[in-house]
């Protein structure tokens, strides 16, 4: 599925594209037509400032057309930092000596309650890989505990590549997206970064989604840890991996995450010659948006505030907020934190992030309706491609935001937020949807919860 030489040949053949070539590809992308690998390579090789601006603009336009003003909110929850792997870039690698910790089920319940108090409804459950400390039974019970004892409605799971049988267990317990980052699609860099470990098997890792699909999971989230290898190569490889899944299983990635390598204990960024600059990062996010317009794109708090604000305008559809990446990290301010997996750059509270989003006209969304109505995999993609996402998702986003404002907002958010929600609702063109939505917003203000289309 990933042929290194083929990718470099495609990139080489599209080197120094003419202005006319770049313009043509951008125009095609603006119509949301599927781009060929050569055309994607043309975009990756475009260097001229005017062209880059056009790429950013079209990415913003596509994002607006497909996702509207919504930005989906979530938070990671780290339940264990025990790890048998030795990924050179990660603070949790086995060579780093520190007291390891895994949460008891009571502690998991408490963390879920604390996340609930921040207003979250959607989590990404994170865990190191350890067959005896955190076997699949532990992960499954952690998920059951959260669903049973909190109002968290969707748990996406980011655990190490595993067997088809274990993926069935995750499916049965009702996970949202199964997330796994390839880290790097460059086989040589992969072997170098994952020495002597379970994770060190490139092929096994690369085919994890095949096993997940065979187990019945139809909602998978990919990612590359940008900084481990050439970013242009990684973007092409991500798109090829997605195409392979679409061709083989009828559905590709539900989301793509774009983590950039950050400083962590036991590693130096100086050892990474492929670190991605801010400009390159903007290019890669926007080119992904043009290449796979219907795939959700996730940005974490690894990125600083300015970069997050900017990329939400140009393609990102989902962000984490108020995140902690240490095990059991959601606590009051007096809590002494455990070692982090890596450094964070946006440490604002969820409330601050939401206010900043709304100031720019975005709708922070806590909606989980698709997942709860079984609208996953190709059923979700059909909805996205039908252009009707706005008629269902935007009203749902506004209702969940109303809930958030009522339950977790401070006085200033209550004052401004409710008029923000109503203004957006008034702008919905479909009158039946608009009337029902306005009625539902009033019901939520009066105390009803969990209404959705
Ligand atoms: N342990 C599982 C795994 O490796 O697949 C679960 C995910 S791990 C807790 C989450 C992700 O953090 C990794 O996939 C990796 O991409 C990312 N990560 C690790 N070290 C990082 C660093 N120094 N900077 C940024 N992201 C990092
Ligand atoms: Fe373990 Fe995941 Fe960190 Fe690798 S990235 S050391 S597998 S926690």
Contiguous runs where pLDDT drops below 50 for at least 5 residues: none
What is the domain tally? 3
What's the shape? Answer: globular
Q: Structural class, please? A: alpha/beta
**Helicity, in percent?**
40-55%
Q: Specify the number of helices.
A: 19
Please give the radius of gyration in angstroms. Answer: 21 Å
| CATH level 1 name of the largest domain | Alpha Beta
- Name every ligand kind in the structure: S-adenosylmethionine, iron/sulfur cluster
Please identify which CATH superfamily of the largest domain we are dealing with. Answer: Aldolase class I
Order of helices and strands: HHHHEHEHEHEHHHEHEHEHEHEHHHHH
At CATH level 2, the architecture of the largest domain is Alpha-Beta Barrel
Can you count the beta strands?
Answer: 9
CATH topology name of the largest domain: TIM Barrel
Main β-sheet, in a few words?
9 strands, parallel
Distance between the termini: 39 Å
How much β-strand is present in the residues?
5-15%
Mean pLDDT score, rounded? 95
């Amino acid at each position: 599925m990933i042929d290194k030489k083929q990718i470099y040949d495609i990139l080489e053949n599209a080197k120094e594209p003419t202005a006319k070539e770049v313009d043509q590809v951008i125009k095609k992308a603006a119509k949301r037509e599927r781009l060929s690998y050569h055309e994607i390579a043309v975009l990756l090789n475009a260097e001229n400032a005017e062209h880059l601006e056009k790429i950013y603009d079209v990415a913003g336009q596509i994002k607006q057309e497909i996702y509207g003003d919504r930005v989906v909110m979530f938070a990671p929850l780290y339940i264990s930092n025990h790890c048998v792997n030795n990924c050179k870039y990660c603070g949790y690698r086995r060579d780093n000596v520190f007291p390891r910790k895994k949460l008891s089920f009571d502690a998991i319940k408490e963390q879920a309650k604390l996340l609930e108090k921040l207003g979250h409804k959607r989590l990404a459950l994170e865990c190191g890989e350890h067959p005896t400390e955190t076997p699949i039974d532990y992960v499954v019970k952690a998920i059951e505990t959260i669903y049973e004892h909190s109002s968290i409605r969707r748990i996406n799971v980011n655990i190490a590549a595993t067997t088809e049988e274990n993926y069935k267990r995750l499916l049965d317990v009702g996970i949202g997206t199964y997330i796994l980052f390839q880290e790097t699609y460059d086989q040589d860099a992969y072997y170098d970064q994952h020495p002597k470990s379970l994770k060190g098997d490139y092929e096994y890792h690369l085919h994890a989604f095949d096993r997940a699909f065979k187990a019945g999971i139809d909602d998978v989230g990919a990612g590359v840890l940008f900084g481990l290898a050439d970013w242009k190569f990684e973007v092409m490889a991500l798109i090829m991996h997605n195409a392979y899944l679409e061709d083989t299983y009828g559905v590709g990635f539900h989301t793509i995450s774009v983590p950039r390598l950050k400083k962590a204990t036991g590693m130096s960024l100086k050892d990474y010659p492929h670190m991605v600059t801010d400009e390159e990062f903007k290019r890669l996010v926007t080119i992904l948006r043009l290449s796979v317009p219907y795939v959700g794109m996730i940005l974490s708090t690894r990125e600083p505030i300015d970069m997050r604000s900017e990329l939400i305008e140009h393609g990102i559809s989902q962000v984490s907020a108020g995140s902690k990446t240490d095990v059991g990290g959601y606590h009051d301010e007096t809590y002494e934190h455990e070692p982090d997996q890596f450094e964070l750059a946006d440490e604002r509270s969820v409330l601050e992030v939401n206010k900043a989003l709304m100031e720019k006209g975005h709708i922070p969304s806590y909606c989980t309706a698709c997942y709860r109505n079984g609208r996953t995999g190709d059923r979700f993609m059909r909805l996205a491609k039908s252009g009707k996402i706005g008629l269902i998702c935007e009203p749902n986003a506004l209702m969940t935001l109303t809930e958030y404002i009522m339950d977790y907002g401070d006085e200033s958010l209550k004052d401004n937020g409710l008029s923000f929600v109503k203004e957006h609702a008034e702008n919905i063109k479909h009158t039946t949807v608009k009337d029902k939505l306005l009625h539902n917003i009033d019901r939520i203000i009066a105390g009803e919860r969990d209404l959705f289309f």
